[in-house]
Amino acid sequence: MLKTITIRVPDRTYEILQSLAKERGKEVEDFLVDLIHEYIKDQLQMVSLLEKRVSELESRVSRLEQEIKAPTRAEVRAKKVSMKDIISERKVQLLSEMRIRKPESFIRKARSEGIVVLESEGGDVAFVDPGFWSVFKEKLPYIPRDIEEADLSKEERKLMNFLIQYGFIVWDSRKRKWREV
Fold first, then answer.
1. Which of 20, 39, 81, 110 could be cross-linked to 115 through a Cys-Cys bond (beta carbons 3.0 to 4.6 Å apart)?
2. pTM of the predicted model as reported, rounded to 2 decimal places
3. How many CB atoms lie within 10 A of CB 82?
4. How far is it between the farthest Cα atoms of the chain?
5. Domain layout of the chain by residue ranges
6. Which helix (DSSP H) or strand (DSSP E) does residue 119 occupy?
7. Alpha-carbon span 93 to 90, nearest angstrom
8. How far apart are CA 119 and CA 106, in angstroms?
9. Which of 121, 83, 81, 116 is nearest to 100 (CA)?
10. By C-alpha distance, which of 29, 35, 4 is closest to 14?
11. Are 161 and 146 in contact (CB under 8 A)?
């Protein structure tokens, strides 16, 4: 059963509709029915495409969520970093800043991994990245006596304070530069 719809349009709009319908060999009413059918068909195709795209995105999100899930114990063990990696990142690490149960074995391990280990008679130990240590030693003679005036990084300042405090370096007033003891 067909329903009747009445619409009111301005004369100019009706003339345009009449012209378009005539080009296609149709009456205005039939032309409007065809336009409505095409519009509905296009909208349904659009909805179908959007539903397909949403479905694809949902499955992609699901796959990504599975990839991001918490790592297993084996993965956590595989991601452990070495002592050398940590010291390379920090540049200088003092034993007094750490809570180590067996400091002697920790020191042995550090040496075996090629880390520069500076043991003081006062009990503290500095673990220094080898690359950082060699650059620092080259820079040492050019650091002024008042280290607060020196342009030092946080790590350099920390190492400098350790070396001065535990007597690894002294100020040579004749040569006016720091030297190792």
1. 110
2. 0.55
3. 11
4. 114
5. 11-68, 83-180
6. strand 116-119
7. 7
8. 12
9. 83
10. 29
11. no
Question: How far, in Å, CA of 155 to CA of 106, rounded?
Answer: 21
Cα–Cα distance measured from residue 61 to residue 37, given in angstroms and rounded to the nearest whole number: 36
DSSP one-letter code for 181: -
Q: Which two tokens stand for residue 105?
A: 């074995």
What digits encode the pLDDT tens for the residues 116-150?
999 988 778 999 999 999 999 999 998 988 888 88
Is residue 128 helix, strand or coil?
Answer: strand
Kindly list the distances between the CA atom of residue 181 and the CA atoms of 29, 135, 165, in Å, as whole numbers in the listed order. 105, 18, 13
Residue identified by tokens 């350790």 is 162
How far apart CA 41 and CA 52 sit, in angstroms, is 17
H runs (alpha helix) in the chain: 11-23, 28-68, 73-78, 83-90, 103-112, 130-139, 154-165
Task: Answer positive or negative: Cα dihedral of 96, 100, 102, 105.
Answer: negative
